[in-house]
Amino acid sequence: MSRLSPTGRKALLTLHLVTSLGWLGADLGLLALGVAGLRGADPEVVYPAAGLLVTYLFAPLSVLVWLVGLASALLTPWGLLRWRWVLVKFVIVTAMLGLVLLLLTPTVRRLGELGPDLTARDRLDLVVPPAVSTTLLVVTTVLSTYKPWGRQRGVRRAELESSQTAGRPG
Ligand code: HEM
């Protein structure tokens, strides 16, 4: 059962879309900087810029996306555990949040400090992780729009039938 008015739900969905797709955009920005660095752009410009982007936009957005995504599930009839597409999104974003905060942010800040001493191997650290996370976010977006796989096991038949009649929770 939804705990939000229709207006509240639309506001939450708008916030969810702006934050999560903004996160994807910030990720693409990191990837663009990483590719530029690999192709020989000035490391004293590229990596400090990536450090700022990750510190002030990408990492804070990761936390916000996780919180707003969780609220979008818990405060709407979708729920967190009822639908596989919601649960899979939550697992992907939770794993990404951990990796961004514990691995990517310190690594990119370190790259910003190394400047001209960066090796080709170091430069890949700003290409591979953003390429993987961008792919995961595109997969997440596709899961959100196609909503595959139906419900988790154990959902009551009556609940299932009523949601099939309605088309989708809401
Ligand atoms: C903690 C992680 C997340 C959870 C639990 C979650 C959950 C949800 C839920 C429950 C809805 C339906 C909201 C409603 O109908 O009012 C939704 C919609 C949506 N989500 Fe997420 N989400 C998460 C992260 C993301 C991310 C990272 C993206 C994209 C990069 C994303 C993209 C979308 C899109 C495009 C919709 C709109 C789908 C539609 O209305 O047809 N979500 N999400």
TrEMBL record:
UniProt organism field: Micromonospora viridifaciens
Domain of life: Bacteria
Membrane spanning residue stretches: 12-33, 53-75, 87-106, 126-146
Keywords assigned by UniProt, alphabetized: Membrane, Transmembrane, Transmembrane helix
Name of the protein this chain belongs to: DUF2269 domain-containing protein
